[in-house]
Task: inverse folding
């Protein structure tokens, strides 16, 4: 996806992209979700709006998540898992 976003081939990126720059692109993607996921979200927002203005009077409103073709499944972390992850992040400080 990054190669397509940058208009380059994967081989070109493998030869020129350093680990530090790749990490920066990963962080940027986590903030902006460029690419197809972003397009899917934009389309879902339009579908939700269209549905909600045309729904039957007693039908509940639908959010854009209802119209997403793919949603990453997230689970809640237990207190122990959260503590372990937090300690792992701050262990080097």
Result:
């Amino acid at each position: 996806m990054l190669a397509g976003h940058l208009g380059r081939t994967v081989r070109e990126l493998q030869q020129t992209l350093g680990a530090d720059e790749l990490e920066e692109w990963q962080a940027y993607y986590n903030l902006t979700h460029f690419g197809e996921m972003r397009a899917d979200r934009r389309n879902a927002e339009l579908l939700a709006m269209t549905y909600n203005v045309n729904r039957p009077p007693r039908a509940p409103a639908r959010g854009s998540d209802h119209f997403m073709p793919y949603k990453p499944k997230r689970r809640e972390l237990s207190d122990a898992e959260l503590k372990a992850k937090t300690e792992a992040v701050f262990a080097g400080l």
Q: What stands out?
A: The chain has two domains: 1-34, 36-93. The chain has a mean pLDDT of 82. The longest helix spans residues 36-54.
